Amino acid sequence: MMPGYFIHIWLFFFAVFVRESKVEEVKKGLYSRVELTGEKLDQHTADSLKSVEWTKRNRSTTCQCFRQTITKSSVSYSQCCGTARFYLNNNTLILENVTERDEGVFTETIVTANGTVKHLNFTLIIQYPPNATGIVVSWTSSTSVTLKCEVSGLFQHLMWKREGVSILEKHRHSFSERNQTLHISNITSSEYGSYSCIASNAYGESEKHTYITGNGTRDETRSDQTVLSSGLTLTCVLGLCLVFYCLYKYHHRHRAENGKTTDGGEAAIDLGIYQEIPDFGEVTPLPCVYTDFIKPRESSQASAAAQHFEESGYSEVGPSCREPVSNEESTACPEAGEE
């Protein structure tokens, strides 16, 4: 048998049973519509089509999105690819509102009646807009400042603005690191204010602000939080004032109601927390002390008692040995020991 005969047999089996494979990379933005379109099916392939199947491989997980068997006229979808839909007339799988979970390698497998198998691979990559996370401000001197816009993700353009007006590169303004860094030399007070950086790509943009005041900066996000905190504090203070005012009015009205007189004209008893204490009149001290009924046992006791009353400012009532009762009568002082 001639060697060329084996070559023809090998080419025949390769044409019939070969597994054709192609790879295509698809980049789409977040929440966008994705159309994965395979090769256009010619009339011969369409007539001899046996089945079409789509699978998705994400890292180490593989699942079946769709399968259609032509001979049995059966179509089946799975939740693996969300709300994906396949259209045989243009050989396209459509995905709506794609997210990170839709990323992966999609493979279309076409099997014909004669056993030919075709594979077409699509690598779906979800693109995100850049995220400006902050602006770092560094004062190199009292009149020179550097602003760096920190961005996560890929960006195509980065623009700087001051008070909403774009900053152009000139003798005192210079850019570096793909416009991520802004250098300002000989800055004056007229250039203080709000600065912002805007990073963008084909899928969106992100903006961050900062405020320059002399040798310091103020983050607008932090300022907004301060304003919010001050507003809450003021609201709490006003609420407490209102509560105290209501308590005052309540006790005032309660006291007024308890202070009213009854129908009989008598004052009602105040049962509130406030009670008035009546004033007592001034007590007048006695002008004198009667001592005539006190019989001292000894003369020394009598003299001591007399001296005590004299020092206290009281007068004795009754006969006294020191004062005559009248011109005609006199009272003698009792002798010691007499009763």
Automatic annotation (TrEMBL):
Domain of life: Eukaryota
SUPFAM superfamilies given in the database record: Immunoglobulin (SSF48726)
Transmembrane annotation, as ranges: 227-248
Disordered as annotated region, ranges: 301-339
Keywords, sorted A to Z: Glycoprotein, Membrane, Signal, Transmembrane, Transmembrane helix
Signal peptide positions (record): 1-23
InterPro entries assigned: CEA_cell_adhesion (IPR050831), Ig-like_dom (IPR007110), Ig-like_dom_sf (IPR036179), Ig-like_fold (IPR013783), Ig_I-set (IPR013098), Ig_sub (IPR003599), Ig_sub2 (IPR003598)
A Pfam family matched in the record: I-set
Ig-like domain residues: 130-213
Annotated protein name in UniProt: Neural cell adhesion molecule 1-like isoform X2
Gene that encodes it: LOC113109894
